[in-house]
């Protein structure tokens, strides 16, 4: 599995592919709202390629469907805290399975939350005692298609009221809403042509 190693620790047995790569560019979505977390998506460009990857590394496709994935089990991974009460961070990449809930369920939950905004560009997931937590933000929520095949990312860890609460689902940016923008920023296809002159 993936581990976090300290470069200062001479006893670390780092993976042969381990290297620090800086971030050359960060592009926030132009409509990102810091107060409501609407449009909570960014694209980071690394300073260098990362050609060396462990053999168990798999590419994850972006969800581009209109599917809402209601009641599907999805996996969230991250380096965030394992307890909201104790801000300690794991040395291993953690993963947990959560159940994607319906838009109506999510909207109903967050209608009770003063200052919370939940809209169609988000999805929520909940399982008792299972959730993303502090510092997991930006990590993927993904699932595998029925019948096998490559995983695809349906969400990006965004915000929550409490970690692993039975009352409050975790909220994720809905990737399908932003897939074209992500691909454009990543240079996977050219920007649309300018409008014709008047």
Automatic annotation (TrEMBL):
Signal peptide: none annotated. CDD domains: Tryp_SPc (cd00190). Keywords: Disulfide bond, Hydrolase, Protease, Serine protease. The keyword RNA-binding does not apply. Pfam families: Trypsin. GO terms for biological process: proteolysis. Coiled coil: none annotated. One of its GO terms (molecular function) is serine-type endopeptidase activity. Residues 1-187 form the Peptidase S1 domain. Belongs to the peptidase S1 family. This is Peptidase S1 domain-containing protein.
